[in-house]
Amino acid sequence: MRAALMYGAGDVRVANVPDPTIQEPTDAIIRVTYACVCGSDLHPYHDLEDTPDGRPMGHEAIGVIEEIGSEINRLAVGQTVIVPFAFSDNTCSFCREGITTSCKHGGFFDGLETGATQAERLRVPQADGTAVVIPEGTDESLMPSLLTLSDVYLTGYHAAVRGGVGAGTSVAVVGDGAVGLSAVLAAKQLGAETIILMGRHESRTDLGRAFGATDVVAERGEEGIARVLGLTDGEGVHVVLEAVGHMPAYEQSYGIVRPGGTISRVGVPQYDNAAVGFASLFGKNVTLTGGPATVRAYLEAAIPQVLDGTIDPGRVFDRALPLDEIAEAYRLMDSREALKVLIRP
Amino acid sequence: MRAALMYGAGDVRVANVPDPTIQEPTDAIIRVTYACVCGSDLHPYHDLEDTPDGRPMGHEAIGVIEEIGSEINRLAVGQTVIVPFAFSDNTCSFCREGITTSCKHGGFFDGLETGATQAERLRVPQADGTAVVIPEGTDESLMPSLLTLSDVYLTGYHAAVRGGVGAGTSVAVVGDGAVGLSAVLAAKQLGAETIILMGRHESRTDLGRAFGATDVVAERGEEGIARVLGLTDGEGVHVVLEAVGHMPAYEQSYGIVRPGGTISRVGVPQYDNAAVGFASLFGKNVTLTGGPATVRAYLEAAIPQVLDGTIDPGRVFDRALPLDEIAEAYRLMDSREALKVLIRP
């Protein structure tokens, strides 16, 4: 089959690789019909060492089941499914508590030990627990929005849920990438009253306004903090949804959160240590939460919301390309010419 | 009046100082009938620079109102009141959200800008919002337990509340000082099922067991983490109540918390930066919360629990001394000969 492989920083190409096969009786093989490029795919795009054999890329997918292992009970060949970016058995004690990304038999589609989704076919481990069926006859026009339930929209949703966003909450979203815009949409869904989007790319913040942002703050650093405080009677917001992962975003977050408020991170932190002492978090009774989105735990409830038009998170896709043009897809996202690129294998 | 003054590390003495007076119409003056020494008083006892004029000490008090300012409406001369370690107007937006330690007109009885409680008299700023009346005729034997509502018990309670302890929660308490033991009692009150107390002083952990600890782990570091994991099917606890404030306690906390769990800190952090990245908090979706206890927000509900015998947090006091022996009180606590010393001015 054809698959996107990354051979080093800035070097993604389509190559012919062996088709995946059933390795465990709990596996399924899908033919990938929709995939995409994630902001986090740009990290190796910037710094991957030379990898002569190539690293399989991508972790978001919709596909059609082609083959199932002998212990698969919930799925059947021919069904169209959403595959979350992490696989999980959905039965262990951590999954039952909703923390599916910590599943005792789970893992990530990281292209290292598993395959990856920017490819014609994908092996789905723990498929009964992982894959969720899209109803037969679903309109193809809804597939981009359904694909966002594999990661990006539900990552924004995870930030809002872990942050405790609810009716009347004031929220600030740090970052106007696809996850940040998804967090705006999720906060709106959960009843947030004020949603301040911190971002400086107007085409993106315009979509943020369409998703429910009540205010946009383009400034960063001390100036950005002052602007958010100015919008909140000097008090700060109840919840900050941090969708970047770099230290300036973290520092911005504790500058704008109100006493007793919450910073919820879903941008994978590109740092190990950060300020947590009296002057940053402790003195104000600020809560720091977040982590890898437990997409699987939210999926059944989110699919009907897409099907009935309650949410349209697929608007984050502003380009679509065939798998053969994967290099262009990465280039467009890296240069910020595209917000998020849909891939059709 | 007589008051405890600290002149430098290890040097606390009683001196004659001017009586406090009403400075703002929202002040009240109380005659302190019960005070005590807090673990946090030991920080300056270890490292206070030479202070020739002396620093007033203490922030926990019960007292009788002797004088009130012209804008006091809720209090009357002669009433016995509990004074939380932080004063607050109890009406500003942060107070209304329960974060009384961030009150816009509030502050701490830190002996710097305000007076302090290891003294015969105390000026209570924002007295209408701060002081809570103890019913007339309350038995003197309950006063030590009521005094713990000024700080230590409700600090343990704050840890448990912010940590989300509820029915069936598994909890670990890091630290067997008076706050840690209070956290055990509070976790029990809130319905925790498993309460693992991490501490190595047997007389203290025995009181912890009396307060509701189901297990005691004396080991620290990696060994302590392994013991807690062993007690929880290798999964870790839902909530860690961190009542120490030093880095090893923080590291212990993220080693024993389960995925999706919460670390709630009430030990004032003696560090500014700490691990918060993928390997410590983020990857496991761990929440970090806590801060200065919002004692005032819990006080009305806690007083009846003491009066009807539901809780007996005053058991943390294992010694009582007159104010004149304040130096001995500090020495006993610093040497760990006493858990917590009650002071009778």
UniProtKB/TrEMBL annotation, chains A, B:
Segments traversing the membrane: none
Recorded family membership: Belongs to the zinc-containing alcohol dehydrogenase family.
Keywords attached to this entry: Metal-binding, Oxidoreductase, Zinc
Molecular function terms from GO: L-iditol 2-dehydrogenase (NAD+) activity; zinc ion binding
Alphabetized SMART domains for the sequence: PKS_ER
Cofactor dependency: Zn(2+)
Domain spans labelled Enoyl reductase (ER): 8-343
InterPro entries assigned: ADH-like_C, ADH-like_N, ADH_Zn_CS, ER, GroES-like_sf, NAD(P)-bd_dom_sf
Protein name per Swiss-Prot or TrEMBL: Sorbitol dehydrogenase
Entry EC no(s): 1.1.1.14
PANTHER family to which the protein is assigned, alphabetical: DEHYDROGENASE, ZINC-CONTAINING, PUTATIVE (AFU_ORTHOLOGUE AFUA_2G02810)-RELATED, ZINC-TYPE ALCOHOL DEHYDROGENASE-LIKE
